[in-house]
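S1.2 Input.
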Amino acid sequence: MAPPLLLLQDIRLHMGTTPLLSGATLSVGAGERLALVGRNGSGKSTLLRIAAGTVEPERGSRFLQPGATMRSLPQEPDFGDAATTWAYVEAGLGPNDDPYRAHWLLGELGLTGEESPATLSGGEARRCALARALAPNPDILLLDEPTNHLDLPAIAWLEKELGNFRGALVLISHDRRFLQSLSRAMVWLDRGTTRRLEQGFSGFETWRDQVLEEEETARHKLDRQIVREEHWMRYGVTARRKRNMRRVGELADLRQRRREALRSAGTVRMVASEGDGSGTLVAQMEDVTKAYGDAPPVVREFSTRVLRRDRVGIIGPNGAGKTTLLNLLTGGLQPDAGTVRLGTGLAMVTLDQSRESLDPAISLAEALTGDRSDQVHVGGQARHVVGYMKDFLFVADQARTAVGVLSGGERGRLMLARAFAKPSNLLVLDEPTNDLDLETLDLLEELLADYQGTVLVVSHDRDFIDRVCTSVIVAEGDGRWQEYAGGYSDMVAQRGRGVEAKDVESRTGAEPKAAAPRASSPVAGTAPAKRKLNFKQQHALQSLPGRMEALQGEIATIRTALAAPGLYSRDRARFERFNAALAAKEAELAKAEEDWLALEMLREEMEAG
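S1.3 Output.
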């Protein structure tokens, strides 16, 4: 077996008096694709900085193969005194590196090289730092949240570029779809130590949940108070995270309702029903156009209707006008032409992702209650603030913690807690997944599944959109917007392509593509022929329910065997075999459920014609 290119052993580091890393290890071989995952504040970025050689641990060893080249992408790039983006990228090149590749990368990422770092947006700064990290084609590439601040076209480009990268890759990301595409092994950093799984992200969550369940069972004799507090930090989400057919069915029902609403709208002028005044209607736009000054319209003759309980995603490249469309839908902007009608009795809450409304000097409890009381009112009922905090994975000891010392992920959870405590029937989320770890994303998806109001969300997270949205409104270019039933994957299936960069047509010299017609919208004077599933798809649709039922039976049998008293201490090897079999069966069941749902929705689309 070839020696690793990079090896960290027994890494230990304290943050103040609190141990952050307590014997962590990391081994990176040539060409490996590792994803480093863990809770916010667990030390992932610190471990990556130790790997890059920019932070020294208190104890432990770091070995880098002589002659091996390494580049890293930090979360916050330091441009120093670089006068231009090209100067910053050029400074990262070695003597034998190709400057033409660096120029090409800047162009692919939408930069000229002449921009001043001081004037870059968050997304532009991230693109520039990516060009610097990728240009040398290093043996080892360390990436810390590379998709932060990137839009969907840039994420798709980066995913493809890294897929062709031949060196070793160590990746920190909260983007599930990105992790599934690129990871081949997982390193889980939890409570200062690391565990490694020789599978990609698709098998990680099942494996992690099983490890936590084993630990909880193994230490049942410990002080119950400690276990209870640990539960909220470690196990609070995983018990609810696992998918089940009820959740899948509920989302399918909501998407079907949305599909029918789109179909009934057709291509004619929409008229609100008599029941709209009761609160069924949330917002209606008819032939709305909006422009700024003499620039071309960012919204051109767009019509839609949002009903109660809809979950509508707004997606498109940066600069397409997503925020403008969102403000038009919620009454924050007036259109230049067309009409916007808002429903009655709307109580809107916006998730402030800038988090500027959080006073860093007050305590977490005060941020939730608004004063120094110990009660928070949720859904018209008073709850003790500590109990409500635990719903968002905080522990009791954090009640008096100052907001200013919370990590980015903890602040994200606090913003969620504040938003869901306010009375509302319309929730507006602008990039809600930023800085949230995987467990908190699970929590947010759970909250949205149970939320009885309407949700409008702008996001570049494809997996989040798939899990949450009943329809998506997509920028088609030239100010045109189109609505599709379902999530991101459903949109791609109907549209035939994902979200392109804003200037993709002008860069390629091709004529702009016409907006795809709504799949369920009839065209006057035509009778489109209905498509049907092919034989393979029909067979899968008929056989998958039986397969899912069989898998559920097998999973129940394995769990019964695992629950046998003393199995872990009596026959560790057998226990591990059962664990591996359970993880495989649960992953197979999850895939079968997703395949069945995709085929069922495809069948409905085809029958709708």
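S1.4 Remarks. The chain has four domains: 6-208, 257-275+283-347+424-521, 360-423, 530-609.
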